Amino acid sequence: MATRKKAKYPRVHAKHGAWYWIEPRAGKWIRLCAIDEGETKLVDRLSEERKKQERPEGSGDMRPLIDIYVRTHAHQHREKAWPKYGEYAGNGFRNVDVKNVRPAHVSHWLKVKYAEKLPMQRVMRAFLSGFFQWCVETNRISVNPCREVKLKKPKPNATYITDAHFAAIRSAMDSYTAERADGKLIERRIGKGALMQCFVDLCYLTVQRSTEIRMLKWSQVDRQAGVIHFLPSKTEDSSGIAVDFAISPEIAAVLDRIKELNGGVQYIGDSPVFRTVDTRGRAKPYEATSIRSAWRRACVRAKLTDEGYTIKMIRAKALTDAAKAGYDIKALQEAAAHSTPAMTEDYIKRRDVPVSGVRLHVPTAKMA
Question: Which residue has the higher pLDDT, 125 or 27?
């Protein structure tokens, strides 16, 4: 068996004609340079990447406490980015003792660090609130400073994917027309493109978040009961709202298509519905970056990049279309697993501009 070429530096290996450094925290392979670029370039790039991993020194006790909090509570949070929030907060408050933190400190940090990023302000406030509540419960402080932090609510995104654009992007996920050197037009297929079409179809037909579809397991697909069992990851740690979504003929057709794309094999149990395999041949869900990349490339092929469509907007389109079809807010709220009708309203895009029938006359002296 051939051995992998290794540099004389720790965690540096050769692959596909380039040197890669295996980042120690997540094990990610980071490209440094081409092998033929020489050792000087390799050393410079290695030093550059290592510096990115170093944490700035801190003089307070808040960052070490955040490290403990993340380490002991990570198993309670399904969100992959949750530990990263601890890094952001730890760096921001590294010179602070937790007992000295006041609401004004938290508010200032959020509004400066995440200026013009209102959703991220709320995400980090939620993380810090959980951390400070843990500090209260462990007798390190007496009051949670985040309770007094008020933030501006972000405006709902008003972008709506039109039917024509949705169809164009969906089509471009599987194939596109290319021009050969002789000027002849040919159709080219995209590897796994048909599976990505099934992905966007399920996102739309079930009105669920793309994360829930990406992480969907065959054990959640209950053909006997005629439903798909969803426990949205976003509500699991808060409201805990779940939804059993009926398997309509359209959804059943998509599930059958996925089975067909898998060579007719019906996977069961915890096998992901949208599965790929790692280097050891083990099944795992597609990474979020892979799904986003497939969507972005399809937008490029469909010449719709200027529209700014994201895969998360499929859910808003689905809820908007369902409202247009006559479903009331209560039905849509249940389908989307929202805790309040207002959350559902935020997703619905108002496509119909009302026409006012008010008619006035310009006042004249005779009318006085």
Answer: 125
Helix axis angle, 62-73 to 118-137, nearest 10°: 90
First to last CA, the chain: 101
Max CA pair span of the chain: 102
CA contacts within 13 A on the Cβ side of 210: 21
The pLDDT tens digits for 108-158 are: 999 999 998 999 999 999 999 999 999 999 999 999 999 999 999 887 778
- d(CA 42, CA 35) in angstroms, rounded, equals 8
Bridge partner list, 275: 285
294: closest CA among 189, 174, 183, 147?
174
- Domains detected in the chain: 12-53 (no CATH), 62-148 (1.10.150.130), 163-347 (1.10.443.10)
Q: What are phi and psi of 28, to 5 degrees?
A: -75, 140
E strands present in 27-126: 29-34
Q: Name residue, tokens 């843990």.
A: 134
